[in-house]
Amino acid sequence: MPLNFVIKLKTEMTTIDRLSHRIKTIADTSFIPAAYAIAELAAVGVIILLLFIKLDPYYEGVIIFTVLCMLLTALLMLIKDMDNPFEVGKNSYADIDLFLLWDLEKKFNEKTGYVQK
Fold first, then answer.
1. Domain ranges of the chain
2. Residue 50 class from Cβ within 10 Å (0-12 exposed, 13-18 middle, 19+ buried)?
3. What is the pTM of this model?
């Protein structure tokens, strides 16, 4: 095998190793629990304030209150869901699609003749 191919192969393997360590670090790192608490307290505070505000006419106020509550709740759920985007198969909305890696693994297995058990 020519030397330049070996060097290129080692360089690419190093890049893959570095990226896989970065993905593991991102997956293992969680946001600060205090930040979650602050966001939840702020959302609850806004909802409580909206309960005490007089909104005229009544039906428009109910619609605005409902929309804002749903928006704040969805935002909190999205923040928690995006905390770890590498949870494959957990049916979250922020999943990162790993089909490229699965296709690459399939091609490697076909070329090497490896059969998974």
1. 32-112
2. middle
3. 0.55
